[in-house]
Design goal:
By secondary structure, the protein is of the alpha+beta class. The chain folds into two domains: 15-70; 75-220, no CATH class. The chain has four helices and ten strands, in the order H-E-E-E-E-H-E-E-E-H-E-E-E-H. Residues 218-226 have low confidence and may be disordered.
């Protein structure tokens, strides 16, 4: 007589546990292979993502450099003893030879190693008998001013006249003993420091705040302001 399994009988817990253990064992056996397969399948996508990210970074960097280079100023210091009309006129100037506008920052002038705080101090130190108020000379602001490409800013000018002859001759000699450095920035807030007439600009994060500043406002000095 053949016995028929009773479908209403509850499952054997021991057999179910053995079956689960067998399935778990097989899964653990193939888990490394499954992991490797997932990695191999996802590797091309990962490489493509990294390549796209690198390409985007390179392109952004190149675009930024093109923008910066297309608006880069190049400011140099210069001095001359004649104006554009050929008249005897000593000038100290900052010229923008770059391709973008320059926003001028602080300027420092030293004569024989000593910082000059104003045109009067400079002329007193190099060229006068201590009374430059009798001189006729012109100044222009050299800080916080925008200079267009190809433009020169003459921040100190001394014309040659009978009244200024002696001072003019002394200034014409002594101007070569001056050390001038200036800080300027582009419209993108990239900043540089230039020193002398031949030095290449040096990139800086921001214009320094510890210079002995040259103040070109001679009118206040004549009026007795400190």
């Amino acid at each position: 007589m053949i016995e028929t399994p009773n479908r209403d009988a509850p499952p054997d817990p021991a057999a179910s546990a053995l079956d689960a253990a067998a399935v778990g064992s097989r899964f653990l056996r193939y888990l490394p292979l499954i992991t490797i397969a997932h990695f191999v399948i996802g590797l091309p996508a990962l490489i493509a993502s990294l390549a796209l990210a690198y390409f985007a970074f390179v392109q952004a960097d190149a675009t930024q450099k093109m923008q910066t280079g297309g608006a880069m100023p190049f400011v140099t210091f210069g001095t001359s003893n004649a104006d554009d009309d050929g008249k005897a006129n000593i000038s100290l100037s900052l010229t923008n030879d770059g391709v973008g506008p320059a926003i001028l920052g602080p300027i420092e002038i030293r004569y024989k190693g000593k910082a000059m705080s104003s045109p009067i101090d400079l002329l007193n130190a190099c060229c006068t008998d201590g009374n430059p108020a009798n001189l006729s000379f012109a100044t222009s602001p050299s800080t916080g001013t925008a200079v267009r490409p190809g433009e020169s800013l003459r921040f100190l000018r001394l014309p040659r006249t009978p009244a200024t002859e002696a001072v003019w001759q002394a200034f014409n000699r002594e101007r070569w003993k001056m050390t001038v450095r200036s800080c300027y920035c582009s419209i993108f807030n990239d900043c540089w420091i230039t020193e002398g007439m031949q030095g290449l600009p040096k990139a800086v994060k921001q214009c320094p705040a510890d210079w002995s500043l040259y103040d070109e406002d001679a009118a206040e000095r004549f009026a007795g302001a400190p």
